[in-house]
User: What shape does this take?
Amino acid sequence: MSVFFDDLAIGQTFQGGPLTVTRDDLIAFAERFDPQPQHLSEDLARTSMFGELVASGWHTAALTMRMLVDGASPRVEGGVVGAGIEEIRWPTPVRPGDQLTAESEILDMRPSRSRADRGLIKLKTTTKNQTGAVVQIITANIVVPRRV
Amino acid sequence: MSVFFDDLAIGQTFQGGPLTVTRDDLIAFAERFDPQPQHLSEDLARTSMFGELVASGWHTAALTMRMLVDGASPRVEGGVVGAGIEEIRWPTPVRPGDQLTAESEILDMRPSRSRADRGLIKLKTTTKNQTGAVVQIITANIVVPRRV
Assistant: This one.
């Protein structure tokens, strides 16, 4: 069941996950997109700013997107289409074997200025690891069709 | 040759790419991280908000990170470590076969408030396709070691 802008309300929350980050996946993502010492091996990471192997923040962002598609965002008609990101923070690194969950909250809603058939919701998504530590906070504006 | 905070200046620019986005890579990324109609096949995309197959914005962000590591950011001692993202926009979709380039500019610099051995640079990275259209703008704060 898809939802429209008109079905949503400020304060609604949505949950997704868990998704486990394996060591192999962490390293494979880094080799492709973020080949830096802290993401490639325990040995190389030891002398990095982190001192240990940690996931690329972009891997955390991509995994969070997967959780958004799978339930951590409203099941919007037309899919989750980002108009833009207002902020991303990574307060705690993601480590090999971490189990992530995501929760989103609608912070704000407004009709589109240019398109009568669309609205925008501001969605804050908090990603946590298995200990409850926040590994990512992202605030995004999502395009949502209106009932016409 | 690695650089330190003290070696950098507001207004410096850095170039990276080109990187080509193949159709197979575009779909493989989406199947894993952003399995939505507009990213999975031409057929499914036709009735989406985009009307054609386009890359996930997170794929564009990840490819831009690769270009940052490979030269589109200063070669900072300790690597490119994001303290956080201030903004991401995706003004034009990335399509199969697009050839991307990235250019970064240091917008601002400040010493860390908490750590005398670190500074922060605000780096704006503009990613363009082969026609010169801007596909992504990202503004990030990057942690940079100071000479001690």
